[in-house]
Amino acid sequence: MLEHFKFLAAHTGRVPKIAIPAPSALYGRPVKPPIDEKIYPDLDAMFADLGRAYKKAVRAFADAGCRYLLDEVFIAMLCDDRYRAQMKARGDDPERMGPLYGDLINTAMSDIPAGMTVTMHLCRGNYKSTFMGSGGYEAEQEILFDRIKVHGYFMEYDSARAGGFEPLKLVPKDRQVVLGLITTKTGRLESKDDIKRRIDEAAKYISLEQLCLSPQCGFASTEEGNVLAEDEQWAKLRMIVEVAEDVWGK
User: Fold this and answer.
1) Strands 117-122 and 211-215
2) pLDDT of res. 5
3) Where are the beta strands (DSSP E) in the chain?
4) What's the structural domain count of the chain?
5) Which pLDDT value is given to residue 49?
């Protein structure tokens, strides 16, 4: 991954965004993770080591010149009642997971240099245009916007599955929210007027200057890709640029 970053940095004048799994990816899937109880009879010790490992990894990215690190998290899945029931059935307490994941993210970014940006991508699944969960952000809003100290949020908002914009009222004034209003799951091109209307709705709860616009996720989260054609992807990206220019200016 570090070599990939160096390649990007050498071939663009833009700031490349490097995406890595968050610490929660090790533990957050509904199946029980293969943790050797002989090595970690106490899960608290495992999570402590996980935080330290991520702290070293994030610093390594910084030392290689990375200035924008984007992580994907399972915290959005904790907003889904079915997922919470699955976690409880395997012996975990979903009420504990959010604070734990938040503290791991804070530990991971605790040694970053000044000028480095760390953001969160909140997603409920995107594999081959499918999804894993539903539910508004209210269930974890205090963890997301108070406990976690990232600089911004890429938030899935392309369907009713993500709930309303009300939780955005808790976002601190010094952070940005990228509204993922454009779906990557189908090739249907959204209406510009509809997107602008939804931005206006979000701006009732957070300053317009704190908002940005993007697709809800990647167009190909895995090598299989999503159910849309390349020209449909470019059409969506062009539309995003046009809407952003209309709303925020060039």
Assistant:
1) unpaired
2) 67
3) 18-21, 68-73, 117-122, 152-156, 176-182, 211-215
4) 2
5) 97
